[in-house]
Design a protein that fits this description.
The protein starts with about 40 loop residues before the first helix and ends with a helix. A two-stranded antiparallel sheet has the order 1-4. The protein has a two-stranded antiparallel sheet with strand order 2-3. Helices cover about 40% and strands about 15% of the residues. It is α+β, with helices and mostly antiparallel strands.
Length: about 190
Amino acid sequence: MEFFGKFVLCSNNERNPVLIEAAETRYWVRRIPPLTHDDQQLLARMQTEIPGLLFFLQQRTLSTREESRLWFSPRLLATEALRRIIHYNRSKPEAEMLSIIRDILDGEKLEEYQFDVSDMVNMLEIRGIRVDHPTVRRTLTESWQLRPAPPTYYQRYTITYNGETQRQDSKTARIYTVTREQLGGLLNEAAM
C-alpha cells in the first residue's frame, strides 16, 4: 500500500530547522508566537474541543481549490518564515553575489547589470570569498536560471577593496544579465 502522510516539525530554531532550497514546494512554514501565559490545563481544554473541531472539519466549505500535487498553490505557502529559512540556507558565495549585484545596481543607478563569470569571481575574491568559475556558473544557470549571451561587448563594473563601485574598461565576453526586477525576485525568494 502506498504511504501518504504529512509531518509536523516543531523547532525553536527559526533560521535553519531543515534544509529548504529556493524551488522547494513541500513546506508550509509558520511562525507561531509564544504563549503569553502558562496554562496548566491546556491539554484538557484541547481534548474537550475535539468533538467541535471534528464537526467543523466535516461541515466546512473549503476556501481553496486543488491547484497542485500538494493541493495548495505554492504561492499560498510562501511565508516570511519560509523565506527566512531559504535565505539562511543559501551558500555564502550566492548570498554575496546577490549583495554585489545590488550594490552595483544601486551605486551606478542601473536597471540591469551585465558581467561575465570572471568579473564575479574577482569581486567575490575581493570580498574574501574564494570560489571557482564552475561554482559561480552553476549558481547563475541552475539556481538563478540565467543563460549566457553569445560573446558580447559590454561595460564592466566592479567592486573595489574599499567597497566602492568602479567602472572598468569594456570588453567582449559571454555575459550574464541581471535586471533590477530579477534581483528583486531572487532576493524576495529568499530574504524577507
